Amino acid sequence: MEFGTGAVKVTPAHDPRDYDCGQRNGLEFVNIFNDDGTINENGGQYVNQHRFEVRAKMIKDLDAMGLFRGKEPNKMRLGLCSRSNDVVEPLLRPQWYMKCKDVAEEMIEAVRKKELELIPSYYEATWNRWLENIHDWCISRQLWWGHQCPVYLIHRKRENRRPDPSKNDDWVAARNIEEAYEKASQKLGIPRDQLHLEQDGDVLDTWFSSGLFPLSVFGWPDVENPDFKAFYPGHLLETGDDILFFWVARMVMMGLLLEKKLPFKQVFLHPIVRDAFGRKMSKSLGNIVDPLDLVYGVTLDTLIGQIKTWNLSAQEEKIAVDCKKKEYPDIVPPCGSDALRFGLLSYMVQGGDINLNVNTIISWRNFGNKIWNSFKFAISKAITDKFVYNPQSINFSSLSLFNKWILIRLNKTITKINAGFDSYKLGEISQAFYQFWMYEFCDIYLEVTKPILANADSDEARTVQQILFLILETGLRLLHPMMPFLSEELYQKLPQFAGKAESVSIAEYPKQNSDWVGEDSNDQVESLMNIVRSVRSLAASVNMPPSNKPKVFVQFGEGSDDRALVEANRLQIITLAKIGDLTLLDKTAAKPDGCISSLVNKNQEIFVYVKDFVKVDKELERLAKRKKELEQLVVKLKEKMSTKDYETRVPADVQKENKDKLEGYLTEQAAVEESHKKIASLGK
Fold first, then answer.
1. Beta 354-355 vs 171-173: how paired, if at all?
2. Residue 396 has what DSSP assignment?
3. Which of 568, 572, 547, 371 is nearest to 452 (CA)?
């Protein structure tokens, strides 16, 4: 044997594992400590001496008896008090317990029958697993603060003995001292004047007191209280998933035991916010993200200055400063609470905890700016001297393709957001709004309507103005729960119209319009956008800026049905692709010179004229240089990732960062090679 003697000491009164062992084997539970850390009467010759002094004396005494065989370091877990840093000694103390097995079965059944719904539903398995293995709950604590336990120790004045705190017969539970005397007198058959009651100095576990929250806030135990009758039980509890059992389960217990009712019907458990690397926030790590710093903005120097006031050790301070430098840019601009709120919602599509990245919140600040600027542009185009908002004037069936399409996309967004709210999929609602506003409204619809709005007196322009205003007004109502301040500010900037609410917060939330449907329009616009994306991709592959506005040719295969669609929407394609001209070619036409090409689908090929805009030799040289750089980066990174013990030695976040880098290098490498081929073909 390399360690130990083969003998094992067991101290059931001073170690949790030994306690279980003692219970299994019927051992005696001997406590050797007084409450002040000195040795009690069970400590023999060491009685009344301090625990640390005794340990040193015992070594000397063993040595004097010839029994000491030496000592050597041994790793062990040592509990330390978070306030005093003193060593914690487990002790056996009389405690109050609550029996939980029967009520736990009711709680499992309530979730099984969907009388209590846990959201997300995957927490049901965790709920059942914990309750199926529940132990009696220790509800008393030896602390200075908290609700004092409503139990009273009974002293008999005529008996010359002190009651035994470990015996239930010497206690009585009551709401107040008067009720306690009445119960004690009835329990023992002794007149009240022969009794003296002493309330237990222990306090209730914090979570026991918190578990009463749904009841106590409405005046319980007065069940006739108007608030209690009106609001208990509630409908929804929203809280963090880390206190599912500390708090949520305890509230359910209290409701079932005290009122025979569940305190709420649904529990929505949100994830925990951690730092960008998935670590719990703490001062010693320096990774605390103060939401006010994101709302109002902060400099890195200010953050480092704050760390120096945290009373950390020199080593902890260095770790904290290094973390801040790694996680924060030099300046965090004011993002506002809207960007922070929207950012937190956007994280809720990934499941699990939120690894909050400061730069992500900054990106949502930029999205808020995009909403503001697009609103400003659209209002300037929609509102003319003669404009009167009249949504009933929009005849959906007679609209042009892109007008019809944007209303269909708006309708789908409304449907998705309402469904997301109903199912508490908050990440999906933020993504749905972002997708619509950024990529469908701003990137496509606003762009294709610019040439139309240039002639404000045309019927098509007037229709577009009505649709623009409808999207702005409806969009702000959609946005309000996610960005309340920005949406309110912009809603107030809308000119007065029939049905406008005093505030967007009391305006009716948008509902699905059963008339705004049509998959054909979606498919047609997607077909046109494939052409636009192909043009953009080809231009980017040869490093050609949009300002060059090249000529583009679309050649159609035999039997293609898309030519009429493309012909009808030439202006929209030219506008979105930022090209100078669009020519349509039959299958039999010769392929145009000086172009690079790409297949859109089996019946469409795109040709972008680039010869006059690209210096072939210089561009080939640039691409060859970048190709060589990427090859070196890939080799170097692969060597690093293939070193011995890489997967066990390198932190998980660094491994992920390296993996993402390698994928990015390989993707760029493929794109560079493809561009090289296309430009080389121009020199032939």
1. unpaired
2. G
3. 572
Specify the pTM.
0.80
Asked if residues 461 and 343 have their Cβ atoms less than 8 Å apart, the reply is no
- Closest C-alpha among 646, 684, 638, 644 to residue 665: 638
SS3 202: coil
Measured between alpha carbons, how far is 31 from 39 in angstroms, rounded to an integer?
9
CA-derived radius of gyration, the chain? 37
User: What does pLDDT average to over the chain?
Assistant: 90
Tokens of 316: 């902890």
Please, are residues 39 and 49 in contact by the beta-carbon 8 Å criterion?
yes
Residue pointed to by tokens 């006010």:
292
Instruction: Tell me how far apart the alpha carbons of residues 316 and 325 are, in angstroms, rounded to a whole number.
Output: 14
Mean pLDDT of 102-110: 96
- Measured from the Cβ of residue 340, the count of other Cβ atoms closer than 10 Å reads 19
Q: For residue 641, what are its two tokens?
A: 């990732």
Task: Quickly state the pLDDT bin for 35 (edges 50, 70, 90).
Answer: confident
Residues 619, 542: contact at Cβ < 8 Å?
A: yes
Element (H, E) at 489: helix 484-493
Distance from C-alpha of 73 to C-alpha of 83, rounded to nearest angstrom: 26
What pLDDT sits at residue 683?
64
Burial of 569 (0-12, 13-18, 19+ CB in 10 A): buried
pLDDT tens track for 500-520: 999 999 999 999 999 999 889
Tracing tokens 């022969």 back to the chain, one arrives at 194
Rounded distance between C-alpha atoms, residue 158 and residue 328, angstroms: 72
